[in-house]
């Protein structure tokens, strides 16, 4: 319960927040927490004490204020970098719902309010889906245009991207369908020709300059206006959904800057994707729209139900996969996911996908650039190369996680982290210089994946589809038979091999920089390249050696046996699964991308093989590894606690520590309690009968205590430092001429969770995970012995795993 950042001097200091100089390291970035975004609004100003009026009781005796009678604004809210009390939040919501249900029977107006309250959740989901879908459509269109801007400009209108510019042109040819007089490269505009070494150098130079400009704008905007907009956002969202408070992370400025800089970062050509950050964008939309509805604005647990649905919306608009988005939220990010949230997540994901489909950002009625349909069946023996791709995906995932975490740790612990702008510019320059000569790294990663997924047909002019034409004697389907690879195919395979090495290395240093950066697309690109290489190899093997035992019976000459695009898709699934450790949701997302049930078995085989191999080499996925790297207080439900320790081994105080700081139920003055608050940094205090008996009465939060005392000084006449504080149900008679007492029983938790000192720690850990506790008190025969907080458990688990327990940064 150590909370060194907690300001305890006065109630006003709690309200004002931290100063501009207070900086904290989050997600590898030095961030400023002076922002007040995402602070729950309160009904009244704390400081307006005069508006309450101090009523007098009979005979002019000051009336005793009981916080049970009238709630104090601010009590029950949470300070920044604290964990919410899930049990208290759910109890508050049940009480609110019970009150609405009771009143609804009294009048028609109350009944209408009850119906409105029940409908508000669905209305909020509708708004989240509409807003997220609209933003995703704008991001897709803008990123596509700005990516093409690096290579040239449209004379009909600079706002057209390359494809849209040439749509209406009648002067395009089949072989050069992407060339039209309306689209001019920078070399054509500057030197008048697109041929020759000078034109190549000019296009090369403009490509690098645009990439540096876009990345510089992205990192500068993030650093100046919204430091929280950097990175993927999924590790922090997982932590927030588990109950942690990070004010401003899902605020208005973060949404605005993340949306703008995501377009810039993707357009710069860096090896990153927009799919992960779209989850962050959707959660920002959900959090901002929560403030329109009282029951979500005032209840942190209810708000997290909305954020779980918003995470599903983010994946829905990223991949055009509403069902996969819901499963992603359930499997990967959500901590508390009731059945009601499942239905609402599905509705919100559906609305978002429909909105994005209405915008039609790619002009092909598809929600993603790399949607593909395969028509050729796969054979049982192909499971062998599919499993091999799964093994490759698992090995690559484990390698990437270790390498990326090592690089990010180096960034945090060395001077490299002090120069985020320089780092982004250097990585962008290296990426652009190495990417331009290779056509497969020069194009955007989404276009690369689309090309690799593509099933070659008669109308394809891609270099990968330049097979040697042979006479087709029969055709039983729309698919072309396997053909021998031409010279351009082998050239493309060499370029893809170089692109594979380049993507594997550059993604390690790119993910985690101070720009919005997703990991889905780069991981899929690595797997798609490996899969396409293996697919073409299998195809040529089947063509030249169709009489081998493994091909005999199902791969006759002139048949379409092998689909290289399918291998690319399986490889992309395997690599993404190896990095993120997703299983069910990943298979469903890829199934929705292809629109065919026939390929679920290959996807499942590759995904499970990838996960098994990656888990054998390291138990953590990339998001869990970044959570641990940043020291977030997140109790991973997948991690087993197998040590035989007891609650008494983990609780505080230890033998060498000072005694536990407690408050007695009727024996302390306001001055003594304020002195206890000033001298300690704990987030709450147990309330006991007396210091001698140590019999537990309840637990009071530090923030509630500070706010209540300050509020009582303003509202209740005569409250001074010598006033006694009571947590008892009845106030005992006071000596004559004594100052009026202060009754604070209303802010005390009368049923704090307790365990005995001999409770096994694996049970304690399960209690914390499943109930979302902030702290648990330890007793022996009814006497208070100590306290266990979430931070204590995380430190103990780190110690048991031979890791640094001080890496847990927050309470």
From TrEMBL:
Keywords: Antiport, ATP-binding, CBS domain, Chloride, Endosome, Ion transport, Membrane, Nucleotide-binding, Repeat, Transmembrane, Transmembrane helix, Transport. This is Chloride channel protein. Gene3D superfamilies: 3.10.580.20, 3.90.1280.20, Clc chloride channel. It is a multi-pass membrane protein. Pfam families: CBS, Voltage_CLC. GO terms for cellular component: early endosome; endosome membrane; Golgi apparatus; plasma membrane; synaptic vesicle. It comes from Culter alburnus (Topmouth culter). SMART domains: CBS. The chain crosses the membrane at residues 119-139, 204-229, 250-272, 278-294, 306-330, 380-405, 417-436, 492-513, 519-538.
